[in-house]
Each structure stands twice: as structure tokens, then as C-alpha cells.
Amino acid sequence: MRIVYFLIILAITIPAQGRKWTDLTGTYSVEAEFVNVVGDQVILRKKDGQQLKLLLSQLSKIDQDYVRAQAKGKLGKQSLTQAMQANSKLEFTQTPLRDVVASLQSVHNLPVYLDAPSLDEFGVSTDTPVTFKSNGQTLGQSLDVIGKPIKLTWLIEYDVVYITTLEKADSMLQARIYQLKDPMAAVRVQKHITRKIRPYSWEAVAGPAATAVHGKYLIVSQQRKTHEEISQLKQDLIPIAKPLLKTKASTFSKALEQRTALTFRDDPLRSVLKTLEEQTQKAGFPGKYRIDIKALDEIGLLDSTPVTVNVKGLPLRSYLGLVLDQLSLTFIQVGNDILVTTLEAAEDKLITTSYDISGIVLQPGTADNLISILTRIIAPDTWEEVGGAGSITFVAPAHLKISQVREVHEKIARLLNTLQTLK
User: Fold this and answer.
1) Is the peptide bond before 397 cis (omega within 30 degrees of 0)?
2) Is 422 left (phi over 0), alpha (psi -120 to 50) or beta?
3) Which residues pair with 334 in a beta bridge?
4) pLDDT (tens digit, 9 = 90+) per residue, 360-395?
5) Residue 85, Cα to own-chain centre: how many angstroms?
6) Residue 329: enclosing H or E segment and its boundaries?
7) Helix (H, G, I), strand (E, B), or coil: what is residue 174?
8) How far is Cα 246 from Cα 252, in angstroms, rounded to an integer?
9) Cα–Cα distance, 325 to 343 (Å, whole number)
10) pLDDT, tens digit, 9 for 90 and up, residues 135-194
């Protein structure tokens, strides 16, 4: 009866609106706007406002791919975290890890990326067998249980659920802000966190993570799972719900927001970048992508190096980020072009920017504290005080002059913009 009902609905013809949807047989179609996907049902809205509920499996392959891309697009808009907090129904028996990821992508409509290069570096095969049956856990908790025996974790980065090693995750720490219920207890709270929660990971014992106090706020740079533990300290802390704010977008950044459905499977780097160039040009950025052949040659990397990103429905910035992350590369903008280069070469081309901190530094002498926060929370091993290339200087009356690579500037701008909004 459900199939018959589906076919009857699709047999109705209406004026063109939204997009054309077709069933698997290609016999029936309807013009409607995509609203949402819930479980195995796709919700559409016709021009007259009537909603249709159709089985995803009854739609054409093209429409199914479109729905999955749209679903991932919606997840990318701040609800991917919520999806990971929903109860899961997972069951795997000696299933290869890569197939577990494929199942999460297809069955749960989740954009999941397996960081195969990092796994390979630490001897974890994507063929590693996984046996797991969920028992009331959330999807995120389930992934934690699956990853624990093989020392893997996950985080939300590049608009995907990014599965990687614990070591790699330490290089991708996330800065979050918490409000102290009692600012006078800041030192006590800091000591409790750094001594009781993942104690080996903090800067005091040469770890990458750090805490810093700014007025009545505690800023913490840590892995996702550690932040979850810190958030449970409800007697002392109130997590700031909103994410770190995005900065004003350039023409290139705006073009990179365009969502598309790309798949790269062992494609040469040069052809992958050519595809991304074509897509960003269609989105309004006229520049070309160039490869710094000399810099890549110095680290033994070729422009024919294979790249694999098997996740659909992402913004172009996510595809670019995942491609560069996979090869430990970065990019800098040179005029109207994008130069893909090595991390080492980028340090020879630092960008100097002046940041207005008048809305943050409210008292004389507190600029030094803000500088300490930035250099300890954001890329702490890249500043000149510890032998890095980056520098930061206070310029009266209320500016910071910072020389850093592009990625670090982006993190600094987001953190400063967020602090501007806090009172």
C-alpha cells in the first residue's frame, strides 16, 4: 500500500516550482521544493503548500543523491553537533572500519571522513574489523566506543565528522569559551580541570592544550571529548552556546561557501585542484589555482600525488580543506590566484594584520593578558617566543599587530570577534 500511495502522489501534475522529482521507474514525477528528510522519508512542499512524504528508496538515483547532499548541507549549518547527540542504532560484526564509515554516510546521511593518512601513519588499517552494537548511546558516544580500542577519536571539522588518531586530534584543538559562575574561583577551576581532566595534555606538562582567563570567562583549547567533560562542571562553568563567530568573508571565501557533490578517489592533486578551480570560478571567484612545485619538491611531494575525499554535499572550502589537510599543505592568496604550497613555505610569506581590540581591552595593562591568551590558545608552537615565525605586538591605543600564516589569522579573528561580543 505504501508504494501505491507513493505512485498516486507522483502522478499528480502541478505548475513548475522547486525542482522535478522522479520515481525509480522514471514513470511518475512531481514538481516540488525539498523541505527535509526524516529517517527514510523525504518531505517535499508543492507550490500550493501541500506537503508530500515520500520514501527515499522510491526516488530516482539522482534524486536520492540530491536529498543526501541537501541533508548534509542542513547538518553543516550547526546541527551536525545535534545529530551526534541523537540516539543511534548501530550494529556491526567484524565489519571493516571503512565500511562502518560508508554505512554512517549512506544509512545515517552523515558527512563522515576517515583520515586514512593519519591512521596509516600510526599503523591503524582502514580494514580493521569493528564489532559493536549500540545500547542507548548517542551516535557520538557510539563512535567513541568504536574508536577507543584502536585509539581513534572524532571531531567536527571541515563540515564533516572527522575520524582520526588521538595524536592528529591534538594538532586540531578547538577553542571554546566558558563563563565562570564565580570569577574569583578562576584559579581553583583551572587547577581542577588541568589536574583531573586529561592531565597529561596541558601546557604545564608540555602538552598542546591550554586554559586562559579573560575577565569572567575561561577560554580552553582542547580536544572535543575533553570539552565534553569540562562542560559537565556545571557547578563552576556555563558553556557559551554559540560557536566562535565567523569573520567577514572575502570574494574567495564567499565562493568557497558554494555546496556541491564532488568525489575524489585517488585522483592526482593537479586534477583535483583544477576541479576546485572550475567550481570556485563558477561561484564567482575568477582566480586560478597554482601549485608551488618547488616547495612541494623540497618535501618529496608531486603534483600527481593521489587524493581521496569520498564525501558529498560539502561547501567547496571543506573540499579544499580536506585535500590540503590530507597532504599537509596549505594555500596563500597571491593577487587573484590561489597558491597551494607547503606549511614551511607559507611561514616565509607571513601575513601582517592589525586588529582593533578597543572593545576587548577595557582597562590599561590588560593588552598583555590578551596577547598571552592568543599565543597560548591559538597555535602555541608557532610564535617567536618559542622559536616559531609568528609575532604579535601591541600598538597604542588599542591595536594588535600580528604576523602569522593564514590559518592562524582566521582562528585569531574568530576568537577576537567572539570576545568583542562578551560583556
Assistant:
1) yes
2) beta
3) 337
4) 866 666 789 999 999 999 999 999 999 999 999 999
5) 16
6) strand 329-334
7) strand
8) 15
9) 10
10) 989 999 999 999 999 999 999 999 999 999 999 999 999 999 999 999 999 999 999 999
